[in-house]
Design a protein that fits this description.
Two copies of one chain form a homodimer. Chain A is mainly alpha-helical. Chain A has helices at about 10-25, 30-40, 45-55, 75-90, 95-105, 110-125, and strands at about 60-65, 70-75. Chain A has two domains: about 1-90, Arc Repressor Mutant, subunit A, CATH 1.10.10; about 95-150, no CATH class. The structure holds a DNA duplex (30 and 30 nucleotides).
Amino acid sequence: MSTIVVNPHITDAEWEVMRVVWANIRVTSKEVISTLEEKMDWKQATTKTLLGRLVEKGALNTEQEGRKYIYSANIEEKEAVISFTNDIFDRICRKNVGNVIESIIKDHTLSFDDIQRLEEILEMKKAFAVEEVDCQCAEGQCDCHLHHHGE
Amino acid sequence: MSTIVVNPHITDAEWEVMRVVWANIRVTSKEVISTLEEKMDWKQATTKTLLGRLVEKGALNTEQEGRKYIYSANIEEKEAVISFTNDIFDRICRKNVGNVIESIIKDHTLSFDDIQRLEEILEMKKAFAVEEVDCQCAEGQCDCHLHHHGE
DNA sequence: CATTTACGTTTACGCATGTAAACAATAAGG
DNA sequence: CCTTATTGTTTACATGCGTAAACGTAAATG
């Protein structure tokens, strides 16, 4: 048994549970339940269901402790976030990735440190920058193709 | 009737349809169908269903032309992408927004222009940067709170 | 004009998801 | 030891979503 799920899909509701586990490293269902009872106004049963589903899909580990479990995350938050962000970039033309990043930066508050760090990354990225990012879109799903006139 | 849906939720499958409409500005179902028959290997019926649902939820406009429709987008791609990206940032601690942007930048190919543009934006952001972004997470869902010890 | 074709509308159906009650088993308390 | 509280497991159920067939009607074609 135990198919190792590399990258289980975490739904919105499940994510709320994951956040509690990520924040606490090791938690009991009780803690998760009370946190979400408060934040989400969920009944205990709801949180229990979500914990169960997350264990089932391999996102959480359990460690028996008496008759209860200690839950811990089996996937890292960073990993989960990245897989989430990748979904966005799969929805758009690669040529627009820069624009999207731009609008994200515009829309969020950053610290001086953040800005400096991003500047450094950009500086490094110059070594790998291209003249023009190429469109990977399917024909008909992006107007980049309109530039290829003639055949 | 006609509740104006400001920001309808667009699912993965629907997004494929939207991309075709966005790329072509005005399209017939025939064009959408043939594009997605090719890219997604969808039966005509599938695309028809999605077109119907998108019209229903206000994401697409229709304009009668004889006995057929010309479909056009009722929401902008940029708008849709932004609402999608916001979902991510609602899932994480605001303190980590910078890190996520960092990893997005690292993971994608950018053009020299992109980089320059981003550098300019960052430069401007400095005027509004903060010493430390503050955590908006609910108690128990983020370890930032651990720093507030004492009360 | 009868038949085929094209295109929008209805209906379908299984699985995922959000939300939760009911149940079972065990520990804790009186 | 019996009752109650705790905690995990089962079952439930409406809605959303992916995927598509069937149907109705109008247009095109022979």
